[in-house]
Amino acid sequence: MAQYLVTGGAGYVGSHCVLALRARGDRVVVLDDLSQGHAAAVPEGVTLVVADLAARDKVAAVFAEHRFDAVLHFAARSVVGESMANPLSHIGANLGNALILAEEALRAGCDRILLSSTAALFGAAERQPIDEDCPIAPGNPYGESKLMIERALDWAHKLKGLRFAALRYFNAAGSDPEGRLGEDHDPETHLMPLAIDAALGRRPPLTVFGEDYPTPDGTCIRDYVHVSDLADAHLRVLDRLESHPRLTYNIGSGTGHSVRAVLDAVERVAGNPVPHTLGPRRAGDPAVLVAASEALKRDTGWQPRFAELDTMVATALAWRRAHPDGYAD
After folding, report:
1. Does residue 94 sit in helix, strand or coil?
2. Which residues form the NAD-dependent epimerase/dehydratase domain (predicted)?
3. SS3 breakdown of the chain: % helix, strand, coil, rounded to 5?
4. 260 and 59 in contact (C-beta within 8 Å)?
5. pTM of this prediction exceeds 0.70
6. How far is CA 327 from CA 38, 179, 203, 240, 257, in A?
7. What sign for the dihedral angle of Cα 100, 105, 107, 111?
8. What positions carry a catalytic annotation?
9. The CATH number of 191-222+254-328 is which of 3.40.50.10240, 3.30.1330.30, 3.20.20.70, 3.90.25.10?
């Protein structure tokens, strides 16, 4: 039975990945400072260590107490707007924490790290859909921070034998189909949960940022991938690291949906209109981001099981209706 350390495992994507690891019988330790995560999101039977990755002594203590087969690194500051407002502290926190984690993992003899990376590395990509060979040109400090981490870990791979995979995924969406986990951020910045809360009358009208993009309806287009499919991809790549010491994959559904299409889907599934207003573009937002995931499918057999936009909305809506106050319930 393998044992894994999952940083940020009390957060949205991390907790769904922990759930998938537990479902196949693996042991898991979660390291999370709970600044964005929730203790209630950590599945039963999982050890939760509440600590900041910046506290090297606490990170070292976790590695001293447990022997891990690999680390799955989800913990990061990830809000693009915040990265644009505070670029130095944002990059410094993400890069510095990742370096501490990697150093302590290697010191403890753990030589496998799976990095939660991002499509923000590609900025305004020159072609769509975006494959792994697309030129890297981050359009915001968040994407830059993930690129710096990838480069640092790649040097650790070349010089220290680190087995390293970077999963550059697009927009995670939806909730565990069985209703065990969901999305609960404070503040919430993701479109789908904001639209759902607006449709349920739980928040003021949301703002659509920009209606003059070069897209069919003028709003940004994004590739949404169900969070449970994302977790499945992590497990498949984790297993592939056994025989392939350096991996990079883009993960998405391969289908782009505009902001207006998401609002329409929420209205359709919820049966309520989504109150919204129109605002100016946000700095750092590309017009289109759609993934080409053929490499992941070819190498691991991964196929998204919940690829339909209405299905993603339905799982997110079901969790929100059952947990109107999120994990505070």
Report:
1. helix
2. 5-252
3. 40, 20, 40
4. no
5. yes
6. 7, 12, 17, 34, 28
7. negative
8. 142
9. 3.90.25.10
